[in-house]
Amino acid sequence: MYKRYLTSQLYTMAQPVLAACGLQNEHLPRLTLLKQDSGVDGSFLIAAILGHRLKASKDHHVLLIATHHTYHHYSSACMKVGFNLGPARDSGQLQILDVAAELFHNYPNCFPSLDDIAHRVGTFLKTHPGRTILVDDLTYFLNFDHSEAQLIDFVEQFAATEDRHHSLVIKLNTADLWATLCANLDDMAQVEIGLQRLASGQFREVDGRLVVSRYPAEEDGEQDLIKVKKVDKSVLYKVNERNIKVFVPGEVGIKNL
């Protein structure tokens, strides 16, 4: 009974933001980009996706590649939306590459290597049939002498495969400094979710804006020579202590931001 209560709690607390982003489905697109503006922390969305994917099925395995935050950060964030990562981690359903923790323990003898990460991701994909890979955040590796081209190649080797049994969710910072990286990953992604600051400033009612872009569904007999993503949804969000709320701009109680 208590386990069932926690499950319903998770869906109640995180479901609005997952539904707004189209991430509540059983199968996610091959590559989803979470693009956060500088000064915006999108880890709440990673936590919501993480809890939802683990709850979807016990046979579904998740690999979390954590850089800026450690496992304990995500564990605490998931607890706030009603999900305990402990059992999933203990059973092996959740595997974590805690890059920041490994850097702390191995410094200065060893630095994060994309080749090593790619090898470990490949091993994970071979071992588990149904899987989701979460990367938070990819631009972290640019701090350790990795080029944008190396990051693009890293994503491409897992996003371009014909294997339909895994999904890749990558969060990255959209600073102008990394425009080439963002543009190339945009071309590979089926869905882009922008986590944006409000152009009009900061407000107590909301923390920012979520802008979801995806390829429009093809109508029967129609095929576009060039596919262009279109904005599917734009909502405001507020991360509270125990839930994540979304609002339509202009609705009652919310300014027309």
What this model shows, in words?
The chain is α/β, with parallel strands linked by helices. It has a single domain (14-199, 206-214, 229-247), classed as P-loop containing nucleotide triphosphate hydrolases (Rossmann fold, 3-Layer(aba) Sandwich), CATH 3.40.50.300. Helix content is 37%, strand content 23%. It is built from eight helices and nine strands. The chain has a nine-stranded mixed sheet with strand order 3-2-4-5-1-6-7-8-9, with helices on both faces. Strand 8 (230-239) and strand 9 (244-247) form a beta hairpin. Helix 2 (43-56) crosses helix 3. The protein is globular, with a radius of gyration of 18 Å. The termini are far apart.
Instruction: Give the % helix.
Output: 25-40%
Specify the biggest β-sheet: 9 strands, mixed
Strand content: 15-25%
Indicate the CATH class. Answer: Alpha Beta
Give Rg in angstroms.
Answer: 18 Å
Mean pLDDT: 84
| Major beta sheet, strand line-up | 3-2-4-5-1-6-7-8-9
Question: Terminal Cα separation, in Å?
Answer: 42 Å
> Topology as H/E string?
HEHEHHEHHEHEHEEEE
Full CATH superfamily name = P-loop containing nucleotide triphosphate hydrolases
Oligomer: single chain
Low-confidence sequence ranges:
1-11
| Domains (count) | 1
- Which architecture name does CATH use? 3-Layer(aba) Sandwich
**Overall number of strands:** 9
Q: Helical segment tally?
A: 8
CATH topology: Rossmann fold
Look at the helices and sheets and give the structural class: alpha/beta
The general outline is globular
GO cellular component, one term: elongator holoenzyme complex
Pathway: tRNA modification; 5-methoxycarbonylmethyl-2-thiouridine-tRNA biosynthesis
Organism: Aedes aegypti
Family: Belongs to the ELP6 family.
